[in-house]
Amino acid sequence: MSSYEITRRPRRLRQNPAMRELVAETRLAPSDLILPLFAADGIDARREIPSMPGQYQHTLDSLKAIGHEALEAGVRCVDLFGVPLEEDKDAEGSVGWAEDGVLNRALREMRAEFGNDLLIMADTCLDEFTDHGHCGAVGTDRFGNEVVLNDDTLELYARMAVAQAEAGAHIVSPSGMMDGQVAVIRDALDAAGHRDVAIMAYSAKYASAFFGPFRDAVGSSLTGDRRTYQQDPANARESLLEAQLDIEEGADLVMVKPALPYLDILSQIAEISPVPVAAYQVSGEYAMLQAAGRNGWIDLDATMMESLLSIKRAGADQILTYFAIDAARALHD
Ligand code: PBG
To answer: Closest Cα to atom 14, ligand 1: which residue?
Structure first.
């Protein structure tokens, strides 16, 4: 065996599992993970989402069942999205704040079922509920062009957030990228006596093609795109402005979405944020890993854990992921 004079030998700290564990800088825990779930109206059995194998449109019963599975695995928070009946959609998305709308019913039942053991987060956005599929009210400008109206939408978000708080949400999460949405929602919640309801702000949300499978999951009616309100993937700077504004407006947590293609954004925001920073591993990220894993092209469990670890290493304090239960279980093994 040859031998050289090498002073620094980084391999010393990698020589066995105990040594590697001793020096690991990043550790995932089940309680870091938040599970997004879909509550669908008008179905009597849960329905698998074709582009998101292993994920379902849930009935209120199967929603409670999966909530228990999550809690048993050590996940402490779920994020609920609503899938209304096609005929309940309208231009404003009013079924989003209707007391008997599917999302509010789901929130009410989940809070009654889990109390404070499992945190119930609500998606606070209108795109699932509008007949045009946009995240807010649509109008025309003076040249006759269709526009998504910022300030008219804020009023609707305020209504929706208050309805979600009344239904029992611990956390509301405005995801529509309207300017000023966090401030308006905070004011409305406080005025209605919901000072304890927290806001997780989707601060840096990109107009991403990685949302594709999600739009199948919620039966989105969108025909165009969201580029006038979601961010341009070419830009990093505006993410810092968006996060700063949300923090000033009263966000309790900020979030970056998607996760893996935007780790640079995540790490920049994590560096400046005085509040917790979450990241959302979105439907397309999940679908890619599932597709390659199911084809035998990659090791699904290993890539799942590596992707989550990378997101945490880049600066995420919490990770929203469709893998939450699988990953939490893997962490126990
Ligand atoms: C909007 C919303 C979207 C997602 C979460 N909230 C879709 C969109 O902006 O088009 C995407 C989530 C995912 O892809 O997993 N309510």
So the answer is: 211
Residue 318 included in any domain? no
Catalytic positions, written as ranges: 205, 257
Distance from the CA of 297 to the center of ligand 1, in angstroms? Answer: 27
Closest ligand 1 atom to 220 CA: 10
Write the pLDDT tens digit of every residue in 7-55: 999 999 999 999 999 999 999 999 999 999 999 999 999 999 999 999 9
Measured in angstroms, how far is the CA atom of residue 214 from the centroid of ligand 1? 6
Residues 108/93, Cβ–Cβ less than 8 Å = no
- Domain total of the chain: 1
Measured between alpha carbons, how far is 151 from 168 in angstroms, rounded to an integer? 26
C-beta neighbour count of 1 within 10 angstroms: 2
Question: Would 44 be classed as within a structural domain?
Answer: yes
> 211 CA distance to ligand 1 centroid (A)?
6
Three-state DSSP class for residue 33 = strand
CATH number of the domain where residue 199 is located: 3.20.20.70
Q: Which atom of ligand 1 is nearest to the CA of 214?
A: 14
Ligand 1, pocket residues at CB < 6 Å: 123, 125, 127, 175, 211, 214, 226, 282-283
Residues of the chain below pLDDT 50: none
Atom of ligand 1 nearest to the CA of 126: 16
The pLDDT, as a whole number, for residue 166 is 98
Answer whether residue 45 is part of any domain.
Answer: yes
Task: Tell me, in angstroms, the distance from the centre of ligand 1 to residue 125's CA.
Answer: 9
Instruction: State residue 216's pLDDT score.
Output: 87
**Strand (E) positions, 41-192?**
47-48, 56-58, 77-83, 119-124, 138-140, 146-148, 171-174
Residue 219 lies in a domain: yes
* Structure tokens belonging to residue 190: 């406080």
| CA–CA separation, 35 and 79 (whole Å) | 6
Q: How far apart are CA 217 and CA 228, in angstroms?
A: 23
The parent domain of residue 232 ranges over: 27-254
Q: Measuring from atom 5 of ligand 1, which residue has the nearest CA?
A: 175
